[in-house]
Design goal:
The complex is a heterodimer of chains A (117) and B (151).
Chain A lengths: L3 E8 L2 E10 L4 H13 L4 E12 L1 H16 L3 E5 L3 H9 L2 H4 L2 E2 L2 H10 L2
Parallel strand pairs in A: 2-3, 3-4, 4-5
Antiparallel strand pairs in A: 1-2
Chain B lengths: L8 E8 L5 H15 L3 H22 L7 E8 L3 E8 L14 H7 L5 H9 L2 E7 L3 E9 L8
Chain lengths: 117, 151
């Protein structure tokens, strides 16, 4: 079975979600839960760090589609960071760079939240 | 029997229609594609395309019924790999599924259709055939040559 986990670290008022392993149709519900818990707590400013992601399929990408509007409605966002070229290519193929902010590093993504205020 | 690279060979994996089996499917593709001589990038693309096809079967053909059968049949020579994926679930008309418009998806909160688009983008050829009430099949092909002609 594919290994995956999502851990949340609070950095100021930003929630950083660190992804690890394989994000596919089997593991995507775990990430959905992570986002749902953040929304329950009223935390809408999130950075997703892809440094330790080995694999992602469209089921994984669908999770970001499902939650982005809720985050933005509440003056937050889902900013993406730390993708390998391989992972970025999949996001790019599906047109995500037009709709999502994607940064090289987690720090860059976190900084953007304060700049936009 | 000695394997002859020029002759087409065949391998098969049969799994139940459960998302927990996706990793076994990916490992099966990985080892065979590597033995044929595909580059790591090409192998990644084939793995993702097959994952998308099987995910669609689990979600749409079997609608998460966990005991459906998915047959993954690899046919390969030293020139080409074809992955034929067969299921016995509901049929659909692939021609009626348009390429996704992400902006529209975003507005409508829709996430389907991405998998089919990825399959078409990542493979050299994608063919659907189906006998409603009997079986559905999708064939994903990748030529070995297309990734070697860098010159």
């Amino acid at each position: 079975m594919a290994e995956f986990n999502a851990t949340v670290t609070e950095k100021g008022n930003i929630s950083v979600i660190n992804l690890k392993g394989f994000l596919d149709a089997h593991t995507a519900p775990a990430l959905e839960n992570t986002f749902a818990e953040l929304i329950d707590k009223g935390k809408y400013s999130t950075v997703v760090n892809f440094n330790d992601i080995a694999y992602i399929s469209s089921a994984g990408l669908g999770v970001f589609m499902a939650f982005i509007e809720k985050m933005r409605e509440n003056k937050g966002d889902i900013k993406l960071a730390g993708m390998s070229d391989k992972v970025y290519n999949i996001f790019d193929l599906l047109g995500f760079p037009l709709l999502y902010e994607i940064y090289k590093t987690e720090d860059e993504a976190i900084k953007k939240f304060s700049e936009n205020k | 029997m000695k394997p002859d690279k020029a002759v087409q060979q065949q391998k098969e994996l049969v799994v139940k229609s459960r998302t927990e089996n996706l990793s076994d499917i990916r490992n099966f593709i990985q080892s065979t594609a590597k033995s044929i001589g595909f580059s790591d990038d090409a192998i990644d693309n084939i793995i993702l395309a097959v994952d998308e096809a099987c995910t669609n079967i689990i979600k749409h053909a079997y609608k998460f019924y966990p005991d459906g059968e998915i047959i993954i049949r690899l046919k390969y020579s030293n020139k080409k790999l074809t992955v034929e994926i067969i299921d016995y679930g509901s049929s659909f008309a692939p021609d009626t599924i348009p390429d996704p418009d992400l902006q529209q998806y975003f507005n409508q909160k829709r996430v389907g259709g991405l998998g089919m688009y990825l399959m078409k983008s990542l493979m050299d050829d994608v063919k659907y055939s189906s006998v409603p009430g009997k079986y559905n099949s999708v064939s994903l092909s990748k030529n070995l040559a297309t990734q070697v002609d860098n010159e």
